[in-house]
Structures are given as structure tokens and as C-alpha cells.
Amino acid sequence: QVQLVESGGGLVQPGGSLRLSCAASGNIFSINHMGWYRQAPGKERELVAIVTSGGATNYADSVKGRFTISRDNIKNTLDLQMNSLKPDDTAVYYCNALLRTTTIPFLANDYWGQGTQVTVSS
């Protein structure tokens, strides 16, 4: 069984920083790409940042220059460093991975974590 577990969320003031982490575990054969998504109340889930297996990164325009995504391919972990946080960044942040399991290594599927709350408020 595969699990993605997020951590690091919390309450911060505008202009502050947080670092989110995601740990993937289970019968993983390989991971293609990993990313962070977020969903605010009344809003659709949106892509925040993504990193491919080769290390290429892409960011939403709203977070460019403020957020940094990174991954550790040995430990199967994913991080999101968030700086200069704004109230509009308030949302539940979800870890996502496109991966193959040892049971079915020829088929890649999407897996999601439970989410971690980030609240930016004074």
C-alpha cells in the first residue's frame, strides 16, 4: 500500500515563512513527478508547484519568486519552502505523486495525501 503524508502546516503572519514536507512510503517502484496543490474554501483545487523525476520545476504565477519546491529521490520526500506569505495563500495544501508500485510496475497512477492547513493571518 502507498501512502503520502504531509506535515508542516500552521498559522503564520503575512510576510512569514513555512516549510511543508511530504513523505511517500509503501511498495513504490518509481516516482515520475511530485507536486503540491492547494484548495481554499469555495475555490477549485489548483496546482502550486511541480517537480519532475529529472528535477525540472514549474510554478503557478501567483507563487513564483516566493515558493521553492524540492524532492529527495532517495528518501522519497517532497518539500515546499514558502516565503513572503500572503493571506491569499491560505488553503489546504495537498501532496501529489504520479508513481508506479512494485505490484504493477508497468502502470503509473496518481496518489494524494490527506492535506495540511496553511493559514496566513494577522
Q: What would you note in describing this structure?
A:
With 122 residues, the chain is an all-beta fold. It has strands spanning 3-7, 10-12, 18-25, 28-39, 46-51, 57-59, 67-72, 77-82, 91-101, 108-112, 116-120. The strands form 2 sheets. Strands 2, 4, 5, 6, 9, 10 and 11 form a 7-stranded mixed β-sheet that branches. A 4-stranded antiparallel β-sheet has the order 1-3-8-7, with no helix packed on it. It starts with a strand and ends with a strand. The mean pLDDT is 97.
Name the descriptors.
single chain, 122 residues, mainly beta, seven-stranded mixed β-sheet, 0% helix, elongated
Report a brief summary of the structure.
The chain has strands at 3-7, 10-12, 18-25, 28-39, 46-51, 57-59, 67-72, 77-82, 91-101, 108-112, 116-120. It is mainly beta. The model has no long low-confidence stretch (mean pLDDT 97).
Q: Distance between termini? A: 41 Å
Helix content: under 10%
What's the shape? elongated
Secondary-structure content class: mainly beta
Low-pLDDT parts are none
Structure summary, number of beta strands: 11
Number of helices in the DSSP assignment: 0
SSE run:
EEEEEEEEEEE
The profile of the biggest β sheet is: 7 strands, mixed
Nearest-integer average pLDDT: 97
- Work out the strand percent: over 45%
**What is the oligomer described by this structure?**
single chain
Radius of gyration: 14 Å
Write the layout of secondary structure elements.
Elements: E1 3-7, E2 10-12, E3 18-25, E4 28-39, E5 46-51, E6 57-59, E7 67-72, E8 77-82, E9 91-101, E10 108-112, E11 116-120
Parallel strand pairs: 2-11
Antiparallel strand pairs: 1-3, 3-8, 4-5, 4-9, 5-6, 7-8, 9-10, 9-11
